[in-house]
Design brief:
single chain; about 70 residues; alpha+beta; three-stranded antiparallel beta sheet; 3 strands; about 30% helix; about 15% strand; rod-shaped
Length: about 70
């Protein structure tokens, strides 16, 4: 009888110990801290057919090639 009571408690203690010792992880595809604003992933079509995205501290569109 005593053995039946000890086994569940030992199992619970093991689970709690493993949960507390596992450090939190970030997904491998998570970007590093950019240190500035995060711009939306919009694109602006340029007259030559290329596209540019938002950049810089104000998230303005980059200049088109030839501008």
């Amino acid at each position: 009888m005593r053995r039946r009571l000890c086994l569940p408690f030992a199992f619970a203690a093991l689970l709690l110990a493993c949960e507390k010792s596992t450090p939190p992880t970030t997904p491998p595809d998570a970007p590093a801290d950019p240190g500035g604003p995060v711009c939306t992933m919009e694109a602006k079509m340029c007259p030559d057919g290329s596209a540019v995205g938002r950049t810089g501290p104000n998230c303005e569109f980059a200049a088109c090639p030839g501008e």
